[in-house]
Amino acid sequence: MLTHTLGYPRLGAFREIKKACEGYWKGALDEKALRSASLEEKHRRWRAQQEAGMELVACNDFSLYDHVQDMSFMLGVIPERYKPLCQNLSDLDLYFAMCRGYQGAGYDVTAMEMTKWFDTNYHYIVPEFTRNQDFHYYSRKCVEEFLEAVSFGVKKPKAVLVGPISYLLLGKEKTDDFHRLDLIDTLLPVYMAVLEDLHHAGCTWVQFDEPFLVTDLDDRTRKLYAEVYGVLRQHFPDVHFLLAAYFDGFGDNLQTAMSLPVDTLHLDVVNGLYDLPAVFRDVPRDMNISLGVVDGRNIWINDVNESLGILGLAVKALGHDRVMVSSSCSLLHVPYDVRNEPDGGTLPDFLGPWLAFARQKLDEIRLLADLMEDEVSADAFYGLAEHLKQLEKRKHSKFLRNSDVRSALDALSGEPVGRRQSIAERRVLQQEWLQLPVLPTTMIGSLPQTAELRSLRKRYRDGSLSAEDYGSGVRVLITNAVRWQESIGLDVLVHGEFERTDMVEFFGEHLDGVAFTGNGWVQSYGTRAVKPPIIYGDVSRKEPMTVELARFAQGLSERPVKGMLTGPGTILKWSFVRNDQPLSDTAMQVALALREEVMDLELAGIEVIQIDEPGIREGLPLKKADRESYLEWAVRAFLVCSGGVGPATQIHTHMCYADYADILDALIRMDADVLTIETARSDMEVLSGFAAAGYPGQLGPGIYDIHSPRIPSVGELNTQLEKVLSHFAPRQIWVNPDCGLKTREWDEVVPAVENMVTAARKARHQVRKRALEEG
């Protein structure tokens, strides 16, 4: 059996590429040094796959920022606003300018939109299309990386490309007079030019990622798949086409997928097991199948009995030579290597043997293939025995279950949850209590995590700084942040979250049943990496988590200071979650733990409590038929978490980088008093949907894009506010950035937030002026 994976992590096991890119942006590294760091990381990735025995090794899955943006650059999809920069910037700087925006040398250009990669926490750069879109072969990165792999000694490099139809569907039309799939006839020749270049370089395997094949498609799109791959097959009969879809099964698209003229069809068996009977029965005789039996999204060791059973059925139906073994999807979504965890670190001793990060998943792929051979080696039998032993230990572990938590969950079952008063009744009480102006200003939560803060935290964790001194240092930062916010006139303040490395990891450190890693880095977007907690058992709160510092911050000001929590849906979605019970059960356990925290914050005098739920939309199943059951328990978990407070306590929630139209009804059912959302990068276009739905709560559309180093002017921000006020009454609107500010520098944040406050004041003046003119 051939072995391979669809892709490998690329930020660096110790974030080497993150550091190199950020060094380049700051001028500490030149382009040659950045390219050198990139090549070193590619070598490490290829070496890992070769050492693990992968017969096919992925290339062109590496990226300095985002693989979809790499495709846009390769295909010459450069929006018009960036064209003037082409004369003054190198290709590398132009690439980064499209991802991050650009200010300098007389130019001020906004960044491209960013959104979630299907139902993951990875963010991609959204391609922008016009009716007469020009596609041309602009970047040879794909071919250059293939040649680098050959030069390194990779015997079978497999070039990875986003397939042409999924590439178009990932993008967005900038006008409404065409559909992006209409562009396929002008796009396809550029794909063929790329394939011709690869073929000429000696490439014989190409992986086309077409993840939209697991979503709901219309007949036109299904027909287009057949036409497009028919053309590609006709022109490249000697190239082995591997078509990959993942994150779900093909479902209604299965017959379309099996009819395509490709050599190998990859199936995500972890999430699409239901496809297999039809595949084994109907797959064409000249088509191979790649079975993604190793979970590329979660970190638990493989259930080898189940995987061997699936592989055995596949071999019986198709024959040994037609079956390949792989991960369900790219390993981009998991950390590099369990062995990178420090001895005596944060992972409990019992947990390590149950985990498989990217490097271990390669070994699992190899093990499963070896166990399917006619003659099985002693090493393979040992690997099987070790997996079975650890699976049994985990199944019966005392660390997984807490009777008190389960009793509390049983008591909650069937009980009504949520707040008793309507949102309109609460709004009257909250306004009377908080006395906020029209268009109140606030921030989402976090403030810059400076080198000073990181040093403070490191010294505390190294033991060279006492808990008392660390706490004092954090309080100084909070005090300075509150004083600054008061000085510029913000209406509802934040404490800055200086005590938190990450909005989910922080809570993982304070909950029972949850573990966290020392080096379990996973790319979220660009150079942003997170360390997802590991939810391994029943979840409960050890002790109050945020109350002490929230009370301290509120004591510094007469203005409201928000209590800040991460919601149950987001904690689940941004963690590696146990796979031995339904997600809904784990969600309710987390919600009960957070409910205790919310009520303690209210008792501590916190009048505004924000429960962030940016992950709730990305958890939405890819097929519409599966969505309502998910939304039912996800909304219920939020209501459990937020519903215990009195009517005068204002509950906020925050969401970002998602298609809210798919969940508008659920957002209304969540019954938050204030919802703040990302809208700046998408140019406020989602607001019409909220207005049409009659969204009843107050809304804070982000008018400042925090994922770009650009500093928006007062005029630009006022224009954004005018767009907002064309949809909503002033009393319904809050003024805030898109998201938290931890990744930005203070010299970017201070002028940008000050401009935001000034823009809000100008808008208030205009609102008052219009009210007087209207009598």
From TrEMBL:
Catalyzes the transfer of a methyl group from 5-methyltetrahydrofolate to homocysteine resulting in methionine formation. Residues 3-311 form the Cobalamin-independent methionine synthase MetE N-terminal domain. It holds the Pfam family Meth_synt_1. Zn(2+) binds at residues 654, 656, 678, 739. L-methionine binds at residues 444-446, 497, 612. 5-methyltetrahydropteroyltri-L-glutamate binds at residues 15-18, 116, 574, 618. Pathway: Amino-acid biosynthesis; L-methionine biosynthesis via de novo pathway; L-methionine from L-homocysteine (MetE route): step 1/1. GO terms for molecular function: 5-methyltetrahydropteroyltriglutamate-homocysteine S-methyltransferase activity. It catalyses: 5-methyltetrahydropteroyltri-L-glutamate + L-homocysteine = tetrahydropteroyltri-L-glutamate + L-methionine. L-homocysteine binds at residues 444-446, 497, 612. It comes from Prosthecochloris ethylica. This is 5-methyltetrahydropteroyltriglutamate--homocysteine methyltransferase.
